[in-house]
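Fold sample X.
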Amino acid sequence: MTIKIDFVIPWVDPNDPDWQADKNKYMRSHAGDSSNKRFNDLETLRYVFRSIEKNCPWYNKIFLITRGHIPQWLRKDHPNLVIIKHEELYFNNNHLPTFNSSSIEMNLPNLRGLSEQFIYLNDDFIIINQIKRDRFFVNCKPVDFLSHGWVKRGILFKLCKGHNTWVNALNNCLKLINNDFKIKHLSNQSLYHSSYGIKNKVSNFMLKNIYKQFIWLEHWHNPQPYLFSSLQKAKDTFSTEMSICSKNKFRKDNDLTQYIYRYWHLASNSFHPYKHNDGYVLKIKNLNYLTKGISYIKKRNSLNFVCFNDQMTDITSDKEFDLIKTTLLNFLDNILIERSSFEK
């Protein structure tokens, strides 16, 4: 029997006037991280849909999570599209409205109708090559890797890099996992798989025999495979902490992230170990970063995934932003030229 594999994509339209009005209203009383740069829209969602349909033709359905706004180009009546509004997703609608992706992710265990095996990705993740199911799932388990770090992102990290709510959220996830799982239960297959490099194996040896707790885990910034049952188990165990994060309308230091679910399946050996090297994160700080990144992508035939990470730290004008968007969309149009069936 062929398993069903759904895709889940959260999306926001920062140009929606109702959304803007709500955001401005709540920003006035908020002291956390509400930076506007989090809400730039490079209009890559259309190409995410194209890339899934073209390069993952085995997909079952695409779940689009939205405040309620829908892209003008999207066919709402497509048989393989499920539009989920925040009101349908949230366990507690008193936590709405939200402007915090981590808050949304705490409510994913309430995503009704989702397949047991599914893939979570952001609206800036593009799948650029044909992908087989077993890149994401083997024997009904998510393909993933466990690679421990050498240094905790703690006080020293803050002194060097400054305050970072995202890093704090990851540390919060690790703390919860350490409270619920014992390192000695990690299997040798999970820790020392043949696809791991020697550095990974040494760091994992130190994890099991010296640290004996998680201090940092390496990530891949790719489409992330999950089991829906793992999400529900994490929710059952960490419901109080996840509810606190769900209330946060903007990023705060007591946030968690979707990686609480990933850490769960890693710590419980509920994954198929294999460390791929087929993804690339293009950090778009300015036009020069983008053009160099596109040149790199064209030379790397082995890449399966690219995240066009909108950082925009060096952007000085709307004109420059528009030029970046035009350059990016022209590139995507060349590699994903065919319209998907989701487009009107």
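Fold sample Y, listed below.
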Amino acid sequence: MIPHYPQAAELSLAMRDTLHSLFQKLPDGISEFTFANLYLFRHTHKYRICYLGDECVITGMDDGAPFFMLPFGLQSKKQLDDLFTHYTAMKCASESQADHLAKMGYKITEDRDNFDYLYSRRDLSGLTGKKFHKKRTHLNAFLNNYNYEGRPLLEEHIPAAIQILNSWRQNREEPGDYVAAKEALEKAEELQLCGGIYYVDGKPVAYSLGEELSLGRSFVVHFEKAIRDYKGLWQFVNQAFASILPEIYDTINREQDLGNEGLRKAKISYRPVDFVKKYRVTAV
């Protein structure tokens, strides 16, 4: 099913049983390293997978530059050197991997644009204290002005969520992650993604979708979409979804800002408690 290097295969749903349990054992909480995330963005990044020795290697392409990732462990120096002759860089190296690779003589660079933002689940669900005053103001504007309802994003609500996603797409010049987000909804059951959907006066207006991460200590929100017509809706969705997550989750991972200044400002405004740092590794 999964070939050996240098052969590689595109990710398929048939690989999920093999890979999902391996991803669940990863402690670092890197948002890319779930089967669902890699599968859904397999075309965007041209992801492929193979075995090199006993570990899996994920390869891909960004802006014409080939890269590789090692979610489950580092290879030997000889194997790594071989990878670096065929790929421009290693992406999504964890802090522990980066330290080890630096000692092996590779060049390590912080990939700030791809740091995952970590938030306290309790902070986002409560929005208490002076630091969240503006968020509460927007939230209360929504709560006081609209007749709303939230429901688990079960199969019967998928068509409504797709309706929200299509409305979101119509208001944007670029497609963004539309294709991946649509497939995530269509295959939510197979990928074991879960979320919430929100209605105003019976009309679907927003949804969140994600999965467990970091040995069950965190929940990563892969997709969150809303329509534009309701003041305070984004603040409501953020708070409402955080408030229904089980207390077993200490943190909520809301992924990266990709270097977008507006998105960075918005993510920082919610006061992250930490980041999941990622590193780019090159041979020189």
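Sample Y note: The CA atoms of residues 66 and 86 lie 8 Å apart.
Also: The chain has two domains: 13-115, 116-255.
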